[in-house]
Write a structure and sequence with these properties.
The structure is a homodimer of 222-residue chains.
Chain A lengths: L2 E3 L5 E12 L2 E8 L9 E2 L2 E3 L6 H13 L5 E8 L10 E10 L14 E6 L10 H18 L10 E2 L1 H12 L5 H10 L3 E8 L7 E6 L10
Chain A binds a DNA duplex (30 and 30 nucleotides) through helix 4.
Chain lengths: 222, 222
DNA sequence: GCCTATAGTGTACACTTGACACTTAGTAAG
DNA sequence: CTTACTAAGTGTCAAGTGTACACTATAGGC
């Protein structure tokens, strides 16, 4: 026990809620815990912050170690710190919210022999710690930001058709949208450009392929 | 040094940005530091989290100890954790954002002989640590929430006139508003009720006094 | 060449937002 | 008591925005 302090210190962890779209459903990435407490239960990827590491770097490192995912859009969500939220010691968890395009779904099991898997966001298994609460907040944040920002672009591959983009909005907002109104609106934002390519995708008229002008940016709109 | 851990632990603090309206200006509450580091500099009220205390409780306790302020609207803002943000040791700061009606402005110097004072939010002195960055974020949050929530009510006393409320919106949004349009809009929200009282306040027609129907609630609007 | 499936396109109506000026009710001064 | 002053209170119209809605275009498969 070489690390000593005059006053008690809590431990600090980061936990990340990663969402993606897969099989026309919003999916959340979870890992199965290999150690107690809550051994065998599913939990958010995350872990202890290193002492000289920035919070966001820690979140990204844990995510990569446990799931292989990297280069995702990530933002801070909330900090959870109920004194009894972990049975081992006092733990403050700085939580993050991340989005992955379907193409980056190639998730590998982590080094500590944990199992990682995607679950439909509305059919989650029993969760460790207060992670159900964290996920609820993350889902609310995603739903809210869908309405007034371009965050949905973070779920898209590099190029896509307008129909594919509309489908993503429909899933996130759980409602069908009018095709003409959606196109009028999304094009009026001037955030897309045509690549000049077409997608031939079955026995019907091919679709123009678009690209986000600023793929790394999330703009506030409306 | 009685508190030992197998791995190094950061310290956790809470810091609070409290805003109020005073002399027709948005004001921020600061304390002058009595101890190094940054001795003599102004800083946000805040301090170390106790080991068995919830984050929000810690923020409220520090605020009360250092400034006497209590019973304010408070929400979590962001968690700051750059490894070098405090020269003493690694410190994670969970920051909060609070609003006080002018009537609760009676601020007393804290127990540890610190000095507390209100500063106009756009004329702040030199600040300790990364507190300038925290305050910038808090001001952005307040400006944004003014547009799509009823957070401005948290700056109002229990009863007020529509002209007083309009004046608060004008200060927060840094623009003048049309009197008829403002009244039409704010009354259409159905969040105010007339008290039946009138305010006689100079040599002119007296104003109806209103009260918020749900003074503790912040609703999303628009 | 005919069938089918998705891509792509314009207009009309309802509603919301924003601009704008005068009357009312009190106080104070002569 | 009359007048002057100040802030409170009130409605309409025009422009812009959002929403509903149906047909044509182009490819593949047979």
């Amino acid at each position: 026990m070489p690390y000593s302090y005059e006053y008690p210190h809590p431990a600090v962890t980061t936990d990340i809620a990663v969402f993606s779209l897969h099989q026309q459903q919003l999916q959340l990435l979870l890992i199965r815990r290999g150690q107690p407490p809550y051994k065998g239960k599913w939990a958010l990827p995350g872990g202890f912050l290193e002492i000289d590491e920035d919070l966001e770097s820690g979140a990204k490192r844990e995510l990569k170690e446990e799931t292989g995912a990297s280069d995702l859009y990530i933002e801070q969500l909330f900090t959870f710190g109920r004194p009894d939220r972990d049975p081992r010691e006092r733990i403050i968890s700085v939580t993050y919210f991340a989005l992955a395009p379907a193409e980056k779904l190639s998730i590998s099991a982590g080094s500590d022999a944990t199992e990682a898997a995607w679950f439909p966001a509305d059919e989650l298994p029993e969760l460790a710690f207060d992670h159900a609460e964290i996920i609820l907040l993350a889902k609310e944040r995603l739903a809210a930001k869908t309405l007034y920002s371009t965050i949905a672009f973070q779920l898209m591959p590099e190029t896509f058709t307008l129909s594919e983009l509309q489908s993503v909005y429909e899933i996130l907002r759980s409602e069908t949208l009018d095709k003409r109104n959606f196109r009028k609106w999304i094009l009026s934002l001037n955030l897309l450009e045509e690549t000049g390519e077409m997608r031939r995708n079955g026995n019907h008229r091919p679709a123009k392929i678009y690209r986000a002008l600023f793929p790394d940016r999330v703009d506030m709109i409306r």
